[in-house]
Amino acid sequence: MTDLAIDDRPVLAGGGDRQLPAPGKRKFQGRRIILMIFLILLALSFLTPALWMLNASLRPEEHVMDFPPGFALSHPQWGNYATVLRNMPVYFLNSVKLAVLNVVGGLIVSSLAGYAFARLTWKGRDALFGIVLVTAIVPNIIYLLPQYILFQKIGWIDTLFPLWVPRVLTPVFGTFLMRQAFKSLPAGLEEAAQVDGASTFRTFLTIMVPQTKPALAAVAMFTFLDSWNDLFGPLIFLTSPEKQTLPIGLAQFQNEFYTQVGPLMAGATVTVIPVFVVFLLAQRYFIQGVTGSGFKG
């Protein structure tokens, strides 16, 4: 007598022979759903303040703090933006000027220093790099008084020099990121360039730098944000209204007695737009630079 094999697989109600998901697969799908819900809630926690800021910037001052908040998109009021655009163009141009100087100068110095620490061999290299990293944990407030005295003696107070020269000459984070990026590149690139007769600087400029675009984008983004959001530096070193930057301009909408919430939110919205645009343009390179070669050992 022939033994009949019994198929104990679950049968679907529709009569098909498709198998139900394995327990392990169902467990994985459950974890994925939980992760997606968590990410959605996390995204909402970041988007809600931004949406409230945009909504408040389009509402009359007397209704900005209403609860529950009304939605201004149906009847937007542009008076807050008119107030901001009347007072902020000079501050905006000063912030753009400082951001360009900091980003361009920071990229040049960071890439040169990172290459020297990663690919060149010289006495005391690792010790000096350790000292550079140690300076990153020293609070900037400690440097404030010596810097102010120095800048006062050389006539830099109420100029833009204190707001970009120190950053350009001491890009600790940028140097670290570029060093890690250069260390991740194969040695064969330099060897091939040397065989072709390229000098060290030409090898650096034409061979090595193009290979580190993601790290360069990350350095540029972090440097831009640091310069764009700087409130403390302009507050200490600048005195002339025509030389102030956007953070100082935003601070003028509030004092110890009253805060102009509508214009303040409109100014904050205008300030965020360039950051958003820069991140969108450099998003692919920025993410690669942070998650890829930038943090390899």
TrEMBL record:
Cell location: Cell membrane
PROSITE patterns found in the cross-reference section: ABC_TM1 (PS50928)
Database matches in Gene3D superfamilies: MetI-like
Keyword entries, A-Z: Cell membrane, Membrane, Sugar transport, Transmembrane, Transmembrane helix, Transport
SUPFAM superfamilies per UniProt: MetI-like (SSF161098)
Primary residence: membrane
Single GO biological process annotation from the record: transmembrane transport
Transmembrane segments: 33-54, 98-118, 127-149, 161-178, 257-282
Protein name (database record): Multiple sugar transport system permease protein
